Amino acid sequence: xxxxxGNSWVKxxxxxxxxxxxxxxxxxxxxxxxxxxxxxxxxxLELVYLLTIGKTPWTDPKYEHNFRVNSFFLDQGTRDAxxxxxxxxxxxxxxxxxxxxxxxxLPIDVAFxxxxxxxxxxxxxxxxxxxxxxxxxxxxxxxxxxxxxxxxRTFGQCYLHKDEIAxxxxxxxxxxxxxxxxxxxxxxxxxxxxxLLIEDGCTLQAGIGKIPDxxxxxxxxxNDLGVHTEMFSDGLLNLYRNGNITNRLKGIHEGKTIASFxxxxxxxxxxxxxxxxxxxxxxxxxxxxxxxxxxxxxxxITSATQVDLTGQIVSDSxxxxxxxxxxxxxxxxxxxxxxxxxxxxxxxxSTAKNGTVSRIVSVISQGAGVGATRGDIHYVVTEYGIATxxxxxxxxxxxxxxxxxxxxxxxxxxxxMQKSYKVPAYQxxxxxxxxxxxxTEIIRLDIQGEDYFLRPLHPSDQRRLQTFFYSHDxxxxxxxxxNEPKKMGTAxxxxxxxxxxxxDMALCIVERQGPREVIQAVGRYYVLxxxxxxxxxxxxxxxxxxxxxxxxxxxxxxxxxxQRKLNFLTANVRFDNLSMRRVFEKYQFTVQTSEDPSExxxxxxxx
Length: 607
Prior knowledge:
The chain has 19 helices and 37 strands. The relative contact order is 0.07. It folds into 3 domains: 2-171, 3-Layer(aba) Sandwich (Glutaconate Coenzyme A-transferase), CATH 3.40.1080; 185-420, Acetyl-CoA hydrolase/transferase C-terminal domain (Glutaconate Coenzyme A-transferase); 437-605, Gcn5-related N-acetyltransferase (GNAT) (Aminopeptidase, 3-Layer(aba) Sandwich), CATH 3.40.630.30. Helix 6 packs across helix 7 and helix 15 (462-470) crosses helix 17 (490-497). By secondary structure, the chain is of the alpha/beta class.
């Protein structure tokens, strides 16, 4: 290992070489600046790298005769160069990029890296960026290092011995930071909905940006969370301090957080510095779907620029132009899908360009690239709710996705799908938001130690409602319908789930069985002709009648009715339905006789 001087470059760099630049916050900027000063001595070099968070002086056109840039991911500087044809973009999953180097598909001649000073045994740490850098360095002819005593020293598979380093420079400078983003109302709303899909004991993958931070912000009530993530960022710090992250139930690397690189504030760099509970490994390991799948209840949270109504995901392009890259999204989506109890979640705002463009689309934009297929994603989340895709037919997922699109675009989306025959003609209307339920229409219920969810009944619940109907015994059918109906056809079920929620109300309580939602109770009211009174009705599955579901539904219906200035709620209850009579009496409904001697009329004034 020799100290690099101004005329040493020609010893290690030859015309036509391929050079890897270190990544992210550990990009060796001072080393690269010195190399650029000597660039005039070289021609036809290729500079490859993953991403940076600062300046990219190597993309300056003045170097076009000396080298060409080839990036695996597009940051702002590289994006403009690629779009203008002055740089190249190589799409590749992060899990597979290291193999391009080790299998000589893209052999690396020289690796420019940043490391910590050697320890007593002579080992230097790659610090906050192991990602693709370790494999590139190990396979290179020469490693040239920027030794920085301000680079955090991290643990894991991140060490280079000083004898592996051909040449070096010494610096003492802070590594670049990324400010913590301010969370807005829409991203916080998305975070609330995503948090409803995360259980105690889940293992998380979350990147940088507003949406991952918003999700993490809403997990302070969760327990025994684990972390196996491509990138470690500030959003995780509060969960560590709050005791939400323990890593003790992961099933692999228990007690430790696993990541491949770290980007964020000074605070997060200080946290990972000399922290044995956080390990950094290369993306060939961290992003390997078979490794990801070994984590218990793995949750992949990523974003997209577009989602079409069949479930195709666009994430690396905007309007036919390359925007970012493949990155590790598909690695984690598929790893989470293979994990026992795992879930892949796409979270995104419903619109772009100040609300003028829907991100939920009937057809993806011309030239856009499909990052994840119709079979990859379990859930899509916007500020309007959660769409369940796994195991859902094209018709069902169309309805799921329309109900989380922005209301301004729902009618057009439904029209587009009817024209292409993806939904039948009887599906005419789109759901309306229920503002009276609060800013989140899905309410988590902890009942006898089990999670249930109260939410509006939606058109996408058509098959779920049929399944609920056919699960009833004869007594339940008779008490609810005054007879024993034998069937609930598709069109009839659709009419029942397609309630005009701006006038009437239909709520349900569902149980999640993996990605499957099972309706366990339905409560609704219909506004009568005079407009000031509504009739209430309930049905609860026989196996769920000791959990207070009817009371929970009635409380919400009363609250909505009061907010909508209704005067009365009424209910017709069979005389022998003692359990339902007790529910209405509990909420001060007065009882009156009915023209039908087998029934009682319950009535509640709301003013």
